[in-house]
Amino acid sequence: MTGMTSLWIGGAPLLLASTSRTRRALLESAGIPIETQSPGIDERAVEAAAMDLPPLDLARRLASEKSLAVSRAHPERIVLGADQVLDCGDKVFHKPVDRAAARRQLQALSGRTHRLHSAGALAKGGEIVAGFAVIAHLTMRALDDDAINLYLDLAGPEVLNSVGVYHYEGLGVHLFERVEGDHSTILGLPLLPLVAALRRLGYLAF
């Protein structure tokens, strides 16, 4: 290991089957070189076909479908797919389509504890070679309509890209009173099981 200048020893960078800036930033902060490519899958169609799966398994399925879609096009590369599923009570929530849907979702989560199921899947040669999934529990403050509207005004349309209608790494932190779970899990990519899998597969120097 003497003389090494890089943690990554896997040759070509990790190929992230996503265009998420948050996931990219998480990987780069961990010293993992990445390239990105959109998986081009219909997530709603995958969910519809797997509607009987519990939320954690649905997150695994979505992550796997993303990584496999990109891996088939780049079989020589190690590909990472990741996804999140949010459930509260007996309801699974999806990314809101507009501000009105975002408001309804925040009203439904207000004052309650919900679960974020974050999963990742590594693929190579069109096959899954490692997978992991972690759950975080988040308790949202009781929010009145004025607070919800102000938050949506301040946060802007980017919150529509979040399954929970919040960017916890930004203004979304103000919505919560208690959080149980690793920070990277909440952001949609559990880093500890990911780096453990990459280390086991021989892509990291230590």
From TrEMBL:
Swiss-Prot/TrEMBL cofactor(s): a divalent metal cation
Major localization listed first in the record, in broad terms: cytoplasm
EC annotation from Swiss-Prot or TrEMBL: 3.6.1.9
Active site: D83
Pfam families linked: Maf
EC category name: hydrolase
Reactions the enzyme catalyzes: a 2'-deoxyribonucleoside 5'-triphosphate + H2O = a 2'-deoxyribonucleoside 5'-phosphate + diphosphate + H(+); a ribonucleoside 5'-triphosphate + H2O = a ribonucleoside 5'-phosphate + diphosphate + H(+)
Subcellular location: Cytoplasm
Functional note: Nucleoside triphosphate pyrophosphatase. May have a dual role in cell division arrest and in preventing the incorporation of modified nucleotides into cellular nucleic acids.
InterPro entries in UniProt: ITPase-like_fam, Maf-like
Protein name per its UniProtKB record: Nucleoside triphosphate pyrophosphatase
Protein family according to the UniProt entry: Belongs to the Maf family.
